[in-house]
Automatic annotation (TrEMBL):
Organism per entry: Thermodesulfovibrio autotrophicus
Gene3D superfamilies reported for this sequence: 3.30.1360.200, 3.30.70.3400, Multidrug efflux transporter AcrB transmembrane domain
GO MF annotations, alphabetized: protein-transporting ATPase activity
Name of the featured protein: Protein translocase subunit SecD
Similarity-based family: Belongs to the SecD/SecF family. SecD subfamily.
Described purpose of this protein according to its UniProt entry: Part of the Sec protein translocase complex. Interacts with the SecYEG preprotein conducting channel. SecDF uses the proton motive force (PMF) to complete protein translocation after the ATP-dependent function of SecA.
InterPro entries xrefs: Acrflvin-R, SecD, SecD/SecF_arch_bac, SecD/SecF_CS, SecD_1st, SecD_SecF_C, SecD_SecF_C_bact, SecDF_P1_head
Keywords: Cell inner membrane, Cell membrane, Membrane, Protein transport, Translocation, Transmembrane, Transmembrane helix, Transport
Length: 540
């Protein structure tokens, strides 16, 4: 019996030591630890959440209508490419969510069915009309939101934000929490960039090309477009290039007429990094496409030699080099009046991936560190006050057994904090509430056991027999209540948002540790006191 008690004591001591080791990174002592310890032992600890540490809370809305349109446009572009490769002369136009193809013939229908079996085909006048079913569009919408979440996550990783929270909310919203972000404006710019990278041809053959002004003042773009919109051919559009006067710092816009047809998009991009032009000592962004993109880029540069290819990002033209010859390998450059910092940010956006559809910021809340500090102090005070009052009441009501229960309560808190540190959990204000609730449940477990022991003592049993019987009879009651709480916490974790998940994690850990401290911790203390020497009374 004594051997079993010592093994349990050793187990409890081992868990306490592990808890201190995992929590050490959150203490001032960690800085003075030797390098080998910092390198090989846990070094993260508990991370404070947005409401405690301060930072940014952003909510983005994915434009699902545009996601549907982009999908249809890409299908139309691919069909046009397939028809050209087959030597079939046909016109492919995308209008809204429909694709119109001329002429009407069985060969075109066969080609469509072979490559896009989901498309429904109908005849409207002299056109074949292709449409995606609503089920396919629903898949596009779901995928677009999921891809947007991954792209945003990649961009945040590149920013180096520790422990961000990113999750879907509703049908098309994405919630992003960035604890400890010092420059929320920069983070917002990089995260929210649509990054629709497109390659289009300049239309220098239109007679209007010579009438374009060389520069207009920044801010006059809308008025300029209204003036020219009825003169531009239907197949063309106007885009602007940003020009900065390096001497005065004034910003101008240079208008260009480009073909609406997109020859290549940024979703085929494999790599983007900053390089320095040795001639002018200016930064630019080097691009490399994946295998599919490299093949398309090679075809484009072979087909449009001596024409200018515009590189457009988010509707802004960055450069329009002349295609001198066919370019193999899928390499390109984005040049412009970049500072090194601007070039780095652009490379991050491109390297992290293009968003599948435009996103719009609908909520931006900045939580200051002062508010976070106040929340921490308030949470600490709530937990301390609750623990002190409960501990005093238990000692008053249960005497020596109450002291044992308080020791188990302290053990419970130590192990809970250690477990959170071991998991590198993000602690939020609801998480602190979960810790307080876990303390209450720990007390409840001890109350159930002590009342059972009292009942056994009233029946005339010895202290040792009353303890054994009381623990056995209380076990299933305690176990059932904890399991139902664990199920509730699991549901909260699965369906809840970030702060609710934090509450669910702390509550789940607290419940599991309660079972350990109540059924093993206090039982070990009672066994140590009452085993061996038979005692006639029990302080309870």
């Amino acid at each position: 019996m004594r051997k079993s008690i010592y093994l349990r004591i050793a187990l409890i001591l081992a868990t306490v030591i592990l808890a201190f080791i995992f929590f050490l990174p959150n203490t001032p002592f960690f800085d003075s630890m030797p390098d080998w310890w910092k390198k090989n032992m846990p070094h993260k600890g508990i991370v404070l959440g947005l409401d405690l540490r301060g930072g940014s809370h952003l909510v983005f809305e994915v434009d699902l209508k545009r996601a549907r349109g982009i999908t249809v446009e890409r299908i139309g572009m691919h069909l046009q490419s397939l028809l050209e490769k087959k030597g079939i002369k046909a016109t492919v136009k995308t209008v809204g969510e429909k694709i119109f193809i001329q002429p009407l013939n069985d060969e075109v229908k066969k080609l469509i069915k072979e490559n896009y079996p989901d498309l429904s085909i109908s005849v409207q006048g002299n056109n074949l009309v292709c449409e995606l079913p609503e089920t396919a569009f629903k898949r596009v919408e779901t995928t677009s939101v999921e891809q947007a979440i991954e792209v945003i996550r990649n961009r945040i990783d590149q920013l180096g934000v520790a422990e961000p929270t990113i999750h879907r909310q509703g049908e098309n919203e994405i919630v992003v929490q960035l604890p400890g972000v010092k420059d929320p404006k920069k983070a917002l710019e990089i995260i929210g960039k649509t990054a629709q990278l497109e390659f289009k041809l300049l239309d220098e053959e239109t007679p209007l090309w010579k009438e374009l002004p060389s520069l207009i003042k920044a801010g006059e773009e809308e008025a300029f477009l209204n003036q020219w919109k009825n003169r531009i051919p239907e197949s063309d559009e106007i885009v602007f290039q940003k020009i900065i006067n390096k001497e005065t710092g004034e910003v101008y816009k240079r208008p260009y007429i480009v073909k609406k047809e997109t020859l290549l998009t940024g979703d085929l991009l494999a790599e983007a990094h900053v390089s320095i032009d040795q001639r002018f000592n200016e930064p630019y962004v080097s691009l490399r496409f994946n295998d599919a993109g490299a093949k398309i880029f090679e075809e484009i540069t072979a087909k449009y030699v001596k024409q200018r290819l515009a590189i457009i990002l988010d509707g802004n033209l960055y450069s329009a080099p002349v295609i001198q010859e066919k370019i193999e390998g899928g390499n390109a450059q984005i040049t412009g009046s970049f500072t090194l910092e601007e070039a780095k940010d652009l490379a991050i956006v491109l390297r992290a991936g293009a968003l599948p559809a435009p996103v719009k910021l609908i909520q931006n809340v900045t939580v200051g560190p002062t508010l976070g500090k106040d929340s921490i102090e308030a949470g600490k005070m709530a937990v301390i006050v609750a623990a002190v009052f409960v501990s005093l009441f238990i000692i008053f009501y249960y005497r020596l057994s109450g002291v044992i229960a308080d020791l188990a309560l302290i053990l419970n808190i130590i192990l809970l904090i250690g477990a959170l540190a071991a998991l590198n959990a993000t602690l939020t204000l609801p998480g602190i509430a979960g810790i307080a609730l876990a303390i209450g449940m720990a007390v409840d477990s001890n109350v159930l056991m002590f009342e059972r022991i009292r009942e056994e003592l009233k029946l005339g049993k010895t202290p040792k027999a009353a303890i054994e019987s009381g623990y056995k009879k209380a076990f299933w009651t305690i176990f059932d209540s904890h399991v139902t709480t664990l199920i509730t916490a699991a549901v909260l974790f699965h369906f809840g948002s970030g702060p609710i998940k934090g509450f669910a994690v702390t509550l789940s850990l607290g419940v599991a540790i309660n079972l350990f401290t109540a059924l093993i911790g206090t039982k070990t203390a009672f066994d140590f006191i009452y085993t061996g020497k038979e005692r006639k009374s029990l302080s309870i």
